Every structure is written in C-alpha cells, then in structure tokens.
Amino acid sequence: MSDEENYIIENEINNPGKKREYWNAGIGLNMVDNLKPSKYLIDLSKKNINGELKYLEVENLLKTFYETQDSNNINMQNEKECDFVSLRIAHLLENKSFVFRPITLKNIHKYLFKDIYNFAGNYRNYNIIKNENILNGDTVKYVNYQDIESYFDYDFKEEKEFDYSKLNNNEVIKHIAKFTSNIWQVHPFGEGNTRTTAVFVVKYLNHMGLNTYVNVFKDHSLYFRNALVRSNYGNIPRGIYPTFDYLIMFFENLLQGKNNELKNKELYIKELFAH
Q: Does the pLDDT at position 262 exceed 70?
C-alpha cells in the first residue's frame, strides 16, 4: 500500500448540531460590521445543515443568484458579503486543517473575502484609524503597516515557544486572550480583521485539542470586537488603561461554556463621554 492510500479525504461531517453551530458563528461574526444574511442564504444553510447540500454546492448557488442581482445596490452588496463570508466561515470552522503561521491568517482572509475585496489575502500598505462608538469616536492605535510582518514574526515565535503545560484553565484563558488581542491589534488587512482573527483563533484552539463553544459568536460578536478594543486602548491623562477583563469573560464562554452575561453597554468608557 502506498503512502497516498493511507490518507483519507476529509468529508463534510454528518452532524446537524455542529453544522448549525458553525453557521451561527459565521452569520453572527458578520454582525461585527452590521451585515445581515439574505433569506436565500438562510434557506441554503438549512439544506447544508440537513445534509441536502455541500458547502461547494451552496457557494455555486450563491454565485448564480448574485450574478442576476443589481451590483450597484448597496444593500444587495452587503447581503452578498454576509452570505459568502458566513458560508466560508462555517466551512473553515468545520475543516480541521491548520498550520500555526502568519501565512494561515493571510490564507483565511483570502478565502473569506475572495471576490468581495480586491485586496483579499494581502496586508494593507497604509496606516489606519477607526472611530469607535465605545470610545466616543477615539481610535485604537493599530500597528504601522511597515511593521506588520515583524510584529507577527515576534508574536508567533513567542506563542510557538510558550509552555501551556503548567497553566491551569483560568491561566490558559488569560494567555489566549492576550495572544488574540496582540494579533488583532496588528490589524493587517484593510477590512475583515475581526472575522479573520476569530476564525484563526478558533482553529488554533481546536488544533491544540481545546473544545470551543462557537455559538457564543451568534449573539456576541460585537461584544468580542469591543472587548478587543478595550484590551488595546489606553488614555493615561483620563485615567484609562487597557483591560483584558471583558475579553476573558468572552473566552470563558467560548472555552468553558460559561454563561457570563456579555453586555455591550458595559464596554463604553464613561470617562470619554463626560463633558
């Protein structure tokens, strides 16, 4: 028997419950950018969950559908992005392949946003700011575009050499929260950073043998993003310092199945709204 014959091609799982979780995560993560799916995608997702359609068949049906739609309609374009990216997130979460390298982040972004953004899979070549509601319009300081690769080289090397063996469960969560925060703060892409980071981190956690309750993304993706903002924002003159508390609560739900109440309104920094 040759080496090739020892391998088994990975097929889609026959587990409606897990598939529903992956779809919930995919659709939920698009709420980070206030994107909602079409009714057509909801119907197709149910058929995938029930085993009637494969992911590739869903993608092909979506492509045919959107070829007949008005490409200048902004609402239609938003639904198109949500539909394709939700599908691809679900597909990637089900797929077990993973390599812990920065190129994997690039490849995830490329797969999620191909034919959505012309820069899919490429690092940005400009600096960015983003006005945050929870910061009353202030922004996180993201990594200079010229430093993206060197930041990733450092973060990935440090994580690869990190020894988890002596940590208890709470310490593992604190460390994962910090690593995720560091990756997200680089913000390597023009758009889609939170969705890409979430998929990468879940696949990394699963790769390490940790179970993830990805249903938490269904209703709390915006909380996840805002918690990342809070972990990277400081304003010393106003007495404001970065905090991982909110991100840790999210990861306790994701990794331990806890039911921490995740309220977005608690993430607003009151000092920034005081006159």
A: yes
